[in-house]
């Protein structure tokens, strides 16, 4: 029944979303007809009033649009990033098929990797490292050094380059990006993304993940219902959005996770606990970050030979 009502309302507003505008116009015209200056109502004065009223209401709509501009921009930002990544992946797939990455069950292995952008700008050469289960590694480097680029290579989005290059990654590898994508859907869907939330099956695991990242208040706010829906990008703060993204890693528990500056908007005093949560559930992070406290949470630091990064002077 709930689904029927939801579908009905969605269809109704999609088809008739301009009804309120026409109601508003009728009311405005009625108002214009009644409130004419001395001399009585005439079509000319009514139309004049109507146009005056429309000018004012259109200006108000303009002001309203301006005030909602920053949040609209934030929404567009994460969507645009995803679209760009999709476009890059499609371009690579159509022109230059990247050689398939090797598959390894228990570790990430990178040997002699040359890191380069799609337009052939070399960012680093000879990258060699491996990440084993329970041996997290931290990669630091200045802005533009190529940390996200490395994540893209490991996910198979960017081509691997280099003589004798070999890159193998486990199937169970996922990413928590800096700017998370919030899926349209209910609260449960946000935690279980990319899979749809299935109440009976996912509720207790999703609740555990949500609590671990300190977002239990979202469930309380919706009176314990996972079906709450809203424009999540507008309602959740930047830090909350990043915590939601981390909760997905805790929900799905891949063997390895790429954490790409994924706590940059989280309050500093909570960050360390969040990283602990990830390792506590048996997920091994490969972290890309500038955060100063992070070295103590990782068993390995990226090898110093990585200072060949093109942008390291920055
Ligand atoms: N699609 C692309 N096409 C061309 N160049 C790109 C592309 N994406 C990123 N770059 C460039 O590659 C370089 C490395 O970018 P990357 O995002 O990996 O840096 P980063 O080390 O993650 O930086 P930050 O610390 O700011 O997140 C940058 O100079 C960037 O402009």
UniProtKB/TrEMBL annotation:
Annotated GO MF terms: ATP binding; ATP hydrolysis activity; ATPase-coupled transmembrane transporter activity; long-chain fatty acid transmembrane transporter activity
One Pfam family per UniProt: ABC_tran
Cellular-component GO terms for this entry: peroxisomal membrane
GO biological process, one term: fatty acid beta-oxidation
Domain of life: Eukaryota
InterPro entries given in the database record: AAA+_ATPase (IPR003593), ABC_transporter-like_ATP-bd (IPR003439), ABC_transporter-like_CS (IPR017871), ABC_transporter_sub-D (IPR050835), P-loop_NTPase (IPR027417)
Domain ABC transporter: 108-314
Keywords: ATP-binding, Membrane, Nucleotide-binding, Transmembrane, Transmembrane helix, Transport
Classification via SMART domains: AAA
Family per similarity comment: Belongs to the ABC transporter superfamily. ABCD family. Peroxisomal fatty acyl CoA transporter (TC 3.A.1.203) subfamily.
Official protein name in the record: ABCD1 protein
Organism: Symbiodinium pilosum
Gene: ABCD1
């Amino acid at each position: 029944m709930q689904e029927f009502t939801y579908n009905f309302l969605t269809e109704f507003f999609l088809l008739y979303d301009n009804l309120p505008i026409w109601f508003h116009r009728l009311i405005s015209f009625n108002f214009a007809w009644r409130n004419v200056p001395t001399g009585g109502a005439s079509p000319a004065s009514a139309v004049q009033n109507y146009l005056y009223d429309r000018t004012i209401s259109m200006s108000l709509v303009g002001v309203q649009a301006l005030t909602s501009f920053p949040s609209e921009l934030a929404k567009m930002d994460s969507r645009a990033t995803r679209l760009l990544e999709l476009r890059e992946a499609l371009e690579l797939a159509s022109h230059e098929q990247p050689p398939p990455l090797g598959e390894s069950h228990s570790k990430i292995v990178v040997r002699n990797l040359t890191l380069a952008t799609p337009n052939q700008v070399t960012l680093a050469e000879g990258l060699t490292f491996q990440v084993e289960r329970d041996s997290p590694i931290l990669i630091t480097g200045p802005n533009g050094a190529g940390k996200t680029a490395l994540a893209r290579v490991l996910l198979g989005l960017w081509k691997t380059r280099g003589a004798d290059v070999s890159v193998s990654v486990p199937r169970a590898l996922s990413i928590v990006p800096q700017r998370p994508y919030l899926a349209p859907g209910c609260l449960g869907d946000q935690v279980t993304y990319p899979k749809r939330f299935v109440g009976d099956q996912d509720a207790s695991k999703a609740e555990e993940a949500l609590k671990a990242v300190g977002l239990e208040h979202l469930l309380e706010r919706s009176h314990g219902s996972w079906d709450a829906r809203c424009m999540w990008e507008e309602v959740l703060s930047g830090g909350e959005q990043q915590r939601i993204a981390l909760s997905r890693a805790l929900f799905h528990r891949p063997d390895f996770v790429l954490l790409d500056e994924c706590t940059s908007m989280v309050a500093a005093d909570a960050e360390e606990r969040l990283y602990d949560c990830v390792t506590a559930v048996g997920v091994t992070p490969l972290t890309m970050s500038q955060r100063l406290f992070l070295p103590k949470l990782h068993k390995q630091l990226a090898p110093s030979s990585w200072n060949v990064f093109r942008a390291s002077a920055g």
